Amino acid sequence: MSVAVGLGLMEFPFAGAGDYWRWVDLCEAGGVDSLWQTDRLVSRQPILECMTTMAALAGRTRRMRFGMNVVSLALRDPVLLAKQCATIDVLSEGRLLPAFGIGSPLGPEWQALDIDTKTRGRRTDESLEIIARLWREESVDFAGKYYRLSGASISPRPVQPDLPMWIGGASDAAIRRTARYGTGWQGGPEGPAEAGKVVAAIKLAAAEAGRSIDEDHYGAAFPFYFGSASDSVVSGAMAAYAKRTNRDPARYFAIGDDTAILDRVAEYVDVGVQKFILRPVGDGASVLAQTRQLIDKVLPRVGAKWPKAA
Fold it and tell me: By CB atoms within 10 Å of each CB, which of 38, 107, 227, 301 scores lowest?
């Protein structure tokens, strides 16, 4: 079993770039598996653009892998995105972990950019096919409803001969999409029980499609906080999650000590999840402190409980 713990950010919680790079350097030196940036193009909150962030991380780090959790394909040109991914993979010497989805229909981008949310699924499916083919083929012709290509090619192609294609989402359509195109599944707001159902459904759909996904290519994400659920920064985040998803935040947030966080990881592992994106709750100083505690207290216990093969 290969359990790996990465860290992710949605909003930019730091006062400036210096604090952000201190956090990145801490993760790099501390054994964090990977870093992940949420995709959001339109927002009033400070959120970094994910592809630019991946390129910056390629230059700053030497060990960690990194990805976008998850990029909304219906909002981006697939040829440009395929080229961006390939370039970042080349410059990072094969450390990019691309993850794709259709994006939440509640996101502000659709209205702001005048894009019909009903087209998200079809645009995403066409984009996934285009991107996968551009990464592997010398010349791509494509005739879809939303995209048309004639003799398209990119060079250099990704360093990774089979660049991963992680897919997000828990709907029936997302499950079929993962089974058809994905090399992995990355969860979002799903608790352990719901994530387990999605993993089982993807495995069944992939088998029906004549494909398989590696056992350690199923991922989950959840916020963590060393402290009390009554702390204002946590209670506010939990209330926002409940309002946005209609889910119980107590089954999603891991709040307490290192044992509470490890136990939440174990709940996901028990239902077939082995890759994790943990999001520290708080502002810049809190994010640094929370990350240090995760590195010092949780990562060693993860390594001891689920030792990786030599």
Answer: 301
Residue position matching structure tokens 């410059």: 91
Whose tokens are 């990194």? That residue is 66
257 touches 287 (CB < 8 A): no
Taking the alpha carbons of 279, 214, 248, 295 in that order, is the dihedral positive or negative? negative
Q: Under a CB-based contact definition with an 8 Å cutoff, are residues 67 and 54 in contact? A: yes
- Provide the 10 A C-beta neighbour count for residue 94: 12
296 CB-side CA count, 13 A: 8
Distance between CA atoms of residues 285 and 298, nearest Å: 19
Give me the helices (H) in 15-168, please. 17-30, 50-60, 78-91, 109-112, 120-136
Give the whole-angstrom CA distance, residue 11 versus residue 245: 18
* Residue at 17: amino acid letter: A
Structure tokens at 291: 């990350």
- Collapse the DSSP code of 229 into the 3-class scheme (helix H, G, I; strand E, B; otherwise coil) and give the result: coil
Task: Tell me the sheet residues that pair with 5.
Answer: 276
Per-residue tokens: 172? 């029936």
Enter the pTM of the model. 0.94
- Give the Cα separation of 248 and 297 in Å (integer): 26
Name beta bridge partners: 310. none
For residues 310 and 2, give the distance between their C-alpha atoms in angstroms, rounded to a whole number: 11
Per-residue pLDDT tens digits of the chain, which is 310 residues long: 789 999 999 999 999 999 999 999 999 999 999 999 999 999 999 999 999 999 999 999 999 999 999 999 999 999 999 999 999 999 999 999 999 999 888 889 999 999 899 999 999 999 999 999 999 999 999 999 999 999 999 999 999 988 899 999 999 999 999 999 999 999 999 999 999 999 999 999 999 999 999 999 999 999 999 999 999 999 999 998 999 888 999 999 999 999 999 999 999 999 999 999 999 999 989 999 999 999 999 999 999 999 987 6
Q: Residue 80 corresponds to which tokens in the numbers above? A: 């440009």
